[in-house]
Amino acid sequence: MADNTDSNTLPNDKPFTAEQWFYHALARDAADYAGKIADYSESIRLNPRSAAAYINRCSAHFHADNLADALQDITEALRLNPQVSLAYSSRGEVHFAMQNFASAQADFQLSLRLRPSYEYAKAGLAITLHASGDRDRAFELWMELLAQDETYRDADATGEKLTWVSPLIEEARMLIAGMGKDDS
């Protein structure tokens, strides 16, 4: 029996559908960004109205440090479905990595308007406020996160939990280190 696990066709020789390409990308190793990008691209080619495929391809681009492509994909996902809190939070992360802090803040706030308790958006907003110099508000938000989950005491654990890239983790590290310090 032939093994079609990495083939572009099903056992009956029919080509993959958009949904099958989507799930093929999900099944790839987490760090196989090029493979994920290729699979999501095929899914999008077959179904260009799939906001989920754009969101997931954005994530692969983001983790591969293709920030311009990530921003393009997440913006298209939001054009297709502007009611997805995750998409605004993801775009906020991309803007943060690009050091576009005002845009990041706006996106995290939009995400929180759609889903007020969304911890990914709250954490993203906190580090963005910290990077922008609004330390008091950043610390307040971080304390709210800490009240929900002790993971937020450690920047690396937070980064792993939220699948953040280095610039976000580094800002979280600075935020955590600055908590409780008196600047006066």
Report on the structure:
The protein has 184 residues and is an all-alpha fold. It has two domains: 15-82, Serine Threonine Protein Phosphatase 5, Tetratricopeptide repeat (Alpha Horseshoe); 100-184, Alpha Horseshoe (Serine Threonine Protein Phosphatase 5, Tetratricopeptide repeat). The protein is built from ten helices and no strands. α5 (85-97) packs antiparallel against α6 (101-114) and α6 runs antiparallel to α7 (119-131). The protein is elongated, with a radius of gyration of 18 Å. Mean pLDDT is 92; it is low at 1-6.
For the secondary structure, the number of strands is: 0
Oligomer: single chain
Helix and strand succession? HHHHHHHHHH
The helix content, as a percent range, equals 55-70%
- What is the correct CATH architecture of the largest domain? Alpha Horseshoe
Range of strand content? under 5%
Q: How many domains make up the coordinates?
A: 2
Rg (C-alpha, Å): 18 Å
* Mean pLDDT score: 92
Shape: elongated
CATH fold-level topology of the largest domain: Serine Threonine Protein Phosphatase 5, Tetratricopeptide repeat
Give the CA-CA distance, first to last residue: 73 Å
CATH class of the largest domain: Mainly Alpha
Category by helix and strand content: mainly alpha
Q: So how many helices?
A: 10
Outline the biggest β-sheet. none
